[in-house]
Specification:
The complex is a heterodimer of chains A (287) and B (381).
Chain A lengths: L2 H5 L3 H36 L20 H9 L2 H32 L5 H8 L1 H4 L2 H14 L6 H25 L3 H9 L4 H30 L2 H7 L6 H9 L5 H22 L5 H8 L3
Chain B lengths: L2 H16 L16 H11 L1 E6 L3 H15 L2 E6 L2 H11 L9 E5 L3 H6 L3 E2 L14 H5 E2 L2 E2 L5 E12 L11 H10 L4 E4 L5 H15 L20 H9 L4 E4 L2 H9 L5 E5 H10 L7 E3 L5 E11 L5 H11 L2 H11 L2 E2 L13 H7 E2 L4 H16 L2
The chains are: A mainly alpha (287), B alpha/beta (381).
Chain lengths: 287, 381
């Protein structure tokens, strides 16, 4: 038997590799279709020349123009909205992390009565319809003078996006094996060393995943921002809803969608290596 | 329950809670002042905030021209329709709200009046308001406006079609049903819970199948005996379900015409004008109001009771209904002028056709009922 013959796997293994390869290829292709096609269509619609409509049988717009982009940047507050959105989202993410940390640790590492009920309660802000929350919560914001302020927007967004950070972070704390903590303690690690060498490195992926979700939730929040933030503050979604609402304008909606979508996709790709499926499924899959 | 209905229920609920509340207004005098004093007060205020849910090009251009004329800066926010009304209602108990003037549809009138959230009456006080469409100035969707709403444009539903493939579009109900038989699935209208042009077609079917639209007029509550025979309409829709294409929104219907998926669809005149100007509908497309009758209405301007800059808001509204500004509105967003003493050039539908074949909407109580009935008796069957 030659070396070559040894290198070729037997037929049943080959069949398995072939099937696996086919399934992986199919998943990648489906994923591409799922994400790339809408993005491609949005780019195409955003470049339609208003004087040269895109109608069948034309597969692509017959001519391209930046008129739709010019229109959105001329007749909306999209420039200011981009700045507000991208200043707001990081602040909200940091505040969500700081506020979530003690509760997430308690849920993940400690035993107490009502823990499961608390887990469910945390999800309330994302289970209730956003407009209902916005309308009733806004009364509190007005009463405390927080409407039309940046601080109000930060607090509002934090409230709505914190459940993601809390649940994912709690799951990350829960996933740390007690043995590792006990071993570190037996080897003489103090509280600070335990945090630095055990807790932080092991919670970091959960923190990254939670941050991505919090960031994107803040970036896409519409209802509360519209009620308590406008007219002083506009974010990308408050501009987008103008084109998505009752008078849907596909070309302009495409422009604003790209503005909103591209940073989100880039963020997800950057954070992809930290996104562990088990964190997400354990955080949100066992309701 | 659809999301929109959840929103509306929340607004109605909050409106009910706030109904007893009436913020004290030091600006009542504005309504009794001579107009030049209102202009002076507006200039002293120096700014205003205006909310609309579409038509940003027109409102922003008008705001710029208004600032050049009076030196008063108007911030324009264009966002979501339901959210804007929600914002007004939730701000109503505050002494000062953040909106000075806004675009309001007839369907929202009841929530705002119930919450005592509007300032006025404005019709008769604002110069030029006596030249606006008289029917729209008095009543919208079956509710008396009591002069709180100032109509700013009219809009009309009709059928948009491809004239190359439909050289002689149907006019009467008999012609339309014959056309449907000959062209199955080539007519589109949207789910009436998702937009007005679909509601318009369902109303047209009710009125044409059962007759006598006048019997519903001015009813603020639905009368059971008047809807007892509506089952016949749902039977007709169910019997002909294969002959229609039901779409997801006003613009989805227009998009299906553009894609060549259907030959004709129920559509708004202003949505069609916007689609033509944006390159999302082929230029040869035509819109008409068939003789079988299609409803039309319009949207209006109003001022929240707790607006900070009421005089500036009144002056801005007066500016928006000036003849030349109304013509610009028609040229920019395609909606038809609310004034009846001047006409616009960018009308997709000729005025005589609008007058002859346009119909008023059924009162809000009946409209709400047929939307709900269509969903349960046709879409869910």
């Amino acid at each position: 038997m030659t070396d070559m013959a040894l290198a070729i796997p037997p037929p049943h293994i080959r069949r398995r590799i072939g099937l696996k390869g086919f399934l992986v290829g199919l998943s990648v292709a489906l994923l591409l279709v799922w994400t790339a096609v809408p993005l491609f269509m949005a780019v195409m619609w955003s470049l339609v020349n208003p004087d040269d409509p895109w109608s069948p049988p034309a597969v692509l717009p017959p001519s391209f123009s930046l008129a739709q982009w010019e229109y959105v940047f001329t007749f909306s507050e999209i420039g200011k909205a981009i700045v507000t959105s991208f200043v707001l989202a990081p602040v909200v993410t940091i505040l969500s992390f700081i506020l979530s940390l003690p509760t997430a640790y308690a849920i993940g590492r400690l035993s107490f009565r009502g823990k499961e009920a608390l887990r469910l309660l945390i999800l309330l802000p994302i289970v209730l319809p956003a407009m209902v929350i916005a309308m009733f919560l806004s009364r509190t914001f007005y009463a405390f003078g927080l409407a039309q302020t940046f601080l109000g927007l930060v607090l509002g967004h934090t409230l709505l996006s914190m459940p993601y950070m809390l649940r994912i972070l709690a799951t990350a704390f829960e996933a740390i094996p007690q043995d590792v903590i006990d071993a570190a303690r037996n080897l003489g690690a103090g509280r600070l060393e335990l945090v630095r060498h055990i807790l932080v490195p092991m919670v970091l992926p959960g923190l990254m995943a939670g941050s991505v979700f919090t960031f994107i939730t803040s970036l896409e929040e519409f209802n509360l921002t519209f009620v308590i933030g406008t007219p002083t503050f506009q974010t990308i979604p408050t501009v987008l809803f103008d084109y998505l609402g009752y008078h849907f304008v596909r070309t302009n909606a495409a422009v604003v969608s790209i503005v909103l979508m591209v940073p989100s996709i880039a963020l997800l790709l950057i954070a992809e290596r930290y996104l562990k499926t088990e964190y997400l499924s354990s955080a949100f899959g066992k309701l | 329950m659809t999301t929109r209905r959840v929103f509306l229920s929340a607004i109605m609920g909050l409106a009910g809670l706030l109904g007893a509340y009436q913020p004290a207004s030091a600006a009542d005098d504005l309504l009794k002042m001579p107009w030049d004093k209102v202009v002076e007060a507006a200039k002293a205020e120096g700014q205003a905030t205006f909310y609309a849910w579409w038509g940003e090009e027109f409102w922003r251009t008008a705001a710029k021209d208004f600032e050049a004329k009076y030196g008063i800066k108007v911030d324009v926010v264009t966002g979501d329709r339901t959210a804007t009304i929600g914002k007004v209602v939730s701000e109503a108990p505050s002494a000062e709200g953040s909106i000075d003037a806004l675009l309001i549809g007839g369907v929202e009138l009841k929530s705002l009046l119930d919450a005592k959230a509007l300032y006025g009456p404005l019709v008769g006080v604002i110069p030029g308001s006596d030249k606006l469409d008289p029917a729209l100035s008095k009543e919208q969707e079956g509710y008396a406006t009591n002069g709180y709403l100032v109509p700013v444009y009219r809009n009309q539903t009709g059928f948009v079609y491809d004239p190359e493939k439909v050289p002689a579009p149907p006019q009467t109900w008999a012609e339309f049903t014959a056309w449907l038989d000959a062209n199955p699935a080539q007519f589109a209208f949207n789910d009436p819970s998702k937009g007005g042009s679909g509601q318009a077609f369902v109303q047209a079917a009710i009125v044409n199948i059962l007759g006598d639209q006048d019997k519903y007029a001015s009813d603020t509550e639905m009368k059971e005996e008047k809807v007892a025979d509506w089952g016949k309409v749902w039977e007709w829709f169910n019997a002909n379900e294969d002959k229609f294409t039901i779409t997801a929104s006003n613009n989805d219907s227009i998009d299906r015409v553009n894609q060549g998926e259907v030959l004709m669809a129920a559509a708004w005149d202003d949505d069609t004008a916007v689609s033509l100007s944006k390159g999302t509908l082929f230029k040869r497309a035509k819109l008409y109001v068939p003789a079988l009758g299609m409803p039309g209405g319009g949207d209006s301007l109003g001022i929240p009771a707790n607006a900070k800059h009421k005089a500036a808001a009144m002056l801005f509204i007066a500016y928006l209904i000036e003849p030349e500004v109304q013509k610009k509105l028609n040229a920019t967003i395609g909606s038809y002028l609310a004034r009846v003493d001047v006409s616009g050039e960018n009308a997709l539908i000729p005025e005589d056709q609008r007058q002859k074949n346009g119909r008023p909407w059924l009162p809000g109580a009946y409209k709400g009922y047929f939307i709900q009935q269509f969903v349960s008796e046709v879409l869910q069957k």
